[in-house]
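Students often ask why we bother encoding 3D structure as a string. The short answer is that it lets us treat folding as translation between two languages. Here is a chain of 466 residues written in the first language.
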Amino acid sequence: MTANVTKLEENKVRLDIEVAPETVRRGVEAKIRELGQQVRVPGFRPGKAPRRVIENRLGRDYIYMEALQEQLPGWYSQAVVETDVRPIDRPEIHFDDPLDEEEGFKFSATVEVRPEAVLGDYKGVEVPRREVEISEEDVEDRIEDMQAQFATLAAVEGRPVQEGDFVILDFKGERLAGGPLEGAEAEDYLLEIGGGELLPDFEQNIVGMNANERRQFGVTFPMDYDEETLRGQSVLFNVHVKEIKERDLPPLDDEFVKEASEFETLDELRVAVREELEATAEQRVEGEFRARVLDVVAEGGDVEVPEVMVHEKAHEMVESFERSISSQGMDPEQYYELAGTDHAAFEERLLPDAEDTVRKELVLDAVATAEGIVADEDEVMHEIGHLAEDSERSAEEIAKTLRDNGTYALLEEEISRQKALDFLVENAVPVPMPEEETEEEEPADEEAPVETRAGVTESEEREEQQ
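And here it is in the second language, the structure alphabet:
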């Protein structure tokens, strides 16, 4: 098979494909064998009738039409792989002459392909980067958390309940309009006051009560309460505080450190905790910086994002999300019902994020092209090796499958994008973060969406295709 690519307007290409006679012949003969198993020919067992008999019974034109319908998608896919074209939509197929086992077959496929981003400045861009700052308070808070894990609860006598106490209580709620409130009762319930486990108004009414005291008070459920039937409802609670307990923390000394960690002294623990917090903070800041670098470069580029790519990406994002919650034991339909949405509405909501992701992928592709960044075979096989770890197949077998179904190129593309982003980050110039932004809440511990998506979702899809 040979295929030539001609660039057209509106981000389209035409593939002119010529299929060799022997390839056409194999396709026709395969279809005749298949039809021979299906067609009953008097005097012959299924699959034993000669070709000329099958042709006389069904007609050569019919056989050729069936063979063409079956073989054409594969021929087109093979041409796409060989020419390294990246289609984003279905092709328009055109041919003038029918199959010919002596002359072969020629056809053309016109298809929209990925647009090429026009890059702006992408080397040496100035990007704000936060400084890693770990205070003594951060260190002490972490150590106090460790200390709390080894705390016991000791009975309190001679004082009422206060913030931070643990109480053992019975409670029962009923609607002010009359009648019990299902699920609003418990016996010997252990509650941390101020822990946010129950409604804040409920917990605050417990403050000041003494052991063995009974109290009745009303609580109004907030309008954003999870259970819709209780929103704005006033409920009367009867409460009996049985016991009051408080945390009894172990002494924060070297003996505690030996029991709670691998270290010998409190000073050693403080040093280790600081190093751990700094490493975590550095990872978070680096991830944020990488995302900012990509944002700056993408904003400086010029690329039209095709709608079909946006919808495809949104679909991938939803499928990835559904696989994730399914792995956690939740049915996606159940999630949608609880969230008051459905698959289609959720996908529609993701379209802006999908468009942003596609734009960044196209920009990274342009950077890789401009800088000659490619994924070499060792890097690809290293990634495939990770896939093979959870498979009964070897890395070489998986690689062959990926090449045959065309997804090997997707893996190469994924790795080249990661390397392109590494290049951008290495060549970016960190500058101090504007003061107003440093005061905002720190971002979640994640990198650019395109990195995460490329590193997880597409790999999952490749595993499913193997």
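Translate back mentally: Residues 441-466 have pLDDT under 50 and may be disordered. Keep this in mind for the problem set.
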